[in-house]
Design brief:
The chain crosses the membrane at residues 21-39, 45-64, 84-111, 166-185, 230-249. The protein is built from nine helices and no strands. By secondary structure, the chain is mostly helical. The protein has one domain (23-282).
């Protein structure tokens, strides 16, 4: 039994990307990107209006070219407009450069978000496989083992096996795919949590049958993460020209951070409870 607990401790400590991500790491590039897009759109509209007004003014002054005073004023106005246009062009250049930089940053953020689901799937599957093998060695009832086996498989299958690098490249080429990426990250987490809660209910029941007096697993506290309304989020993103996307990324990262935090507490509970069971079995 000690061998299983040692293996379990190893899997718990090897987190990889299965950890909480900060706002700066995965959310900031989308927030800044949305802000830059809004600013550039505003500047574009302003430039179009300014161009239309300047064109009307120039045409009117052309009719009255006999007036040297009006002609001189027109030349000064054109020079001022040209200078402003140059300044506006420089501002747009730096805004575009910043947008490109944050867009590349968002590619890395997408990679990390997908990689977290992949690493979480593999890591918790190893943990649950180890718990199943440990319970098998302890001689747990076959019917309960069969039910536990089903829950272990369901918890693994609820999370999709994706390629973080591939999705990052696809996002770089076709940015619109971010809508689907956020959809499956939210959908998979919701399904995974519902199955996982049933799994820990069964683990808790087995431990109680073995005489271990332990509190309920922390992961059973509160409600499971709900599935987000993808269609509504997509419509909101399109209507706001991408600004709502920053909030959607925030929701996905927040939900996963909460899940990872719940896992940290629950895995500590699991390890301590199984160590107590080992002491009881040895004595």
């Amino acid at each position: 039994m000690r061998l299983y607990i040692s293996r379990l401790r190893e899997y718990i400590e090897e987190r990889g990307n299965d950890t909480r991500f900060s706002f700066v790491l995965v959310e900031l590039p989308f927030v800044v990107g949305a802000a830059l897009s809004a600013v550039m759109l505003g500047l574009l509209l302003f430039a179009l209006v300014l161009g239309a007004v300047t064109s009307i003014g120039t045409g009117t002054e052309f009719v009255y070219m006999h007036s040297s005073r009006l002609q001189a004023a027109s030349e000064v106005r054109i020079e001022a407009t040209a200078g402003f246009a140059a300044l506006l062009g420089l501002l747009v250049f730096w805004l575009v450069a910043a947008a490109v930089g944050f867009a590349l940053w968002s590619v890395y953020a997408v990679y990390k978000l997908v990689a977290r689901e992949v690493d979480h799937r593999r890591r918790v599957d190893r943990i649950y496989q180890t718990v199943y093998e440990l319970f098998t060695e302890l001689g747990v009832d076959r019917a309960r083992l069969a039910a536990l086996r089903d829950r272990v498989d369901d918890a693994r299958d609820a999370l999709s096996e994706h390629s973080p690098g591939l999705w990052a490249i696809v996002y770089l080429v076709f940015s619109i795919v971010i809508l689907y990426i956020l959809h499956f990250l939210s959908r998979d987490l919701s399904r995974h949590e519902r199955v996982e809660r049933r799994l820990y209910e069964q683990i808790y029941e087995v431990l109680r049958e073995k005489g271990v007096a332990a509190a309920r697993p922390p992961i059973l506290e509160g409600e499971a993460t709900p599935e987000r309304p993808t269609i509504l989020y997509i419509v909101a993103t399109l209507l706001t020209l991408g600004v709502f996307l920053a909030y959607w990324v925030h929701v996905v990262n927040r939900d996963w951070n909460r899940h990872v935090a719940a896992h940290e507490r629950t895995e500590k509970w699991l390890l301590e409870t199984l160590e107590a069971l080992a002491e009881t079995t040895r004595s």
